[in-house]
Amino acid sequence: MNTMKQKKALISVADKNGIVPLAQTLKQLSYEIIATSGTQKLLKEHAVDSVNIADYTGGTESERVKTLSQRIATEILETGEISLVVCNLYPFYEQKGKSLEEMIEFIDIGGVTLIRAAAKNYKKVGVAFDPAHYPEIMETVKSGRNDEEFRLMCARRAFDYIAWYDAVIAEYFSRNAAERDFFTVGAEKFMPMRYGENPHQHAAFYLNRLQQAEFIIHGGKQISYNNVLDADVAFSSALEFRDDIACAMIKHQTPCGVAIGPTQVEAFTRAYEADSLSAFGGIVGLNRTIEGATAEEIKKHFFEVVIAPGYSQEALDILGTKKNLRVVQLNPDVLSPLVYRPVFGGILVQERDRADHEKWEVVTKRSPDDQEKTALKFAWKVVKWSKSNSIVFATENRTTGIGAGQTSRVGAVEIAARQTGDRHDRIVMASDAFFPFRDGVDVAAKAGVTAVVQPGGSKRDGEIIEACNEQNIAMVFTGMRHFRH
Hints:
The chain has three domains: 167 residues, Rossmann fold; 119 residues, 3-Layer(aba) Sandwich (Cytidine Deaminase, domain 2); 117 residues, 3-Layer(aba) Sandwich (Cytidine Deaminase, domain 2), CATH 3.40.140.20. The chain is built from 18 helices and 21 strands.
């Protein structure tokens, strides 16, 4: 996009949407168009003259080698004779169910080189890759506003594009992503956010291209940054119970009520009743396709989001009457196996916590009975998703109190006990990490806890076990911690 008398544009696009009007505009402005064979064929069908790249370079255009040429590189990188490069890449990011050999053929080489070269020489050359940008390119070229500042903006976009493209490929080839020497994420902007955690923070939701089709919002207000964070925990918490019908209600990224039931309605009702005060304005996650009867119950209360793997048409019709309720559908298979977060300008990466207990060791004189065992296993699944330090009080099918995100473990026990009150009998307690002192067990005993599950590993384990024996509480060690910071 310079002012040289002989203007040239190189067009090589996998996504041919919008390319014809752009090429027509360039021809009207006396550009010579150089095109690869597939693009040239489309332009010819619309009476737009172009030069085949093989004829232009005096070489050949094979299936794998189309645009790699010293002449092309020189005229983009050095002289700027090719003053506009329009190129987008083989859709590696859209492929599903293909073999490695098939995927290899979707790795673009020449296109990445063209885009990178044009972006590097932005002082002389403009670059475009997205059909959504073509109208802006056309208007800028026609109006003569194709200055260096505009070309630099185009270069910034282009470097983002090729970095994303390579990140998608790197993710595909990574078999153990947590052990990669270099970490990148192949996500593209999926939807804008009105703001981040607070109104003064800008934010957006980025998601892998293949996963975008699996994240469906059926209705409601624009989903927010905090909604997405909470929905992730709600959905993951419910999916923890793959063998049961489960419902999880979340506030500020920690459960306030989780339950299972013989029916979806009963699971929802139990979860809501576990802490109806905190559930107000929360997020509801279910692990089964939502039925009409469940939707009727959800409709009775105020929630920000409901998320599930599917919805019956009846459920969608019912939930659609709640105009502000975000109704989200997500395929469980797209949940990332990694968890990462920015720190100090870098990124912490770890595997998602998908493990259950490694062992089940009774360490007290009394063993838990069958009812307590069932309740302990239920509570252990819930405590994984509660912010540490975390304590969960539960029966065999619902939480009764959750103390989460506390700086002292006994403080978490006190909160869970206070929430439970005297509403339930046969309460068990799960702790995401060991008890440093016996005070947590003593408070739990006063609240009516009859059995405890915890990782063990404290230097005072003997004191903790003795405290349980004194109060006829059964205790199980799992040998596994479930911190979630």
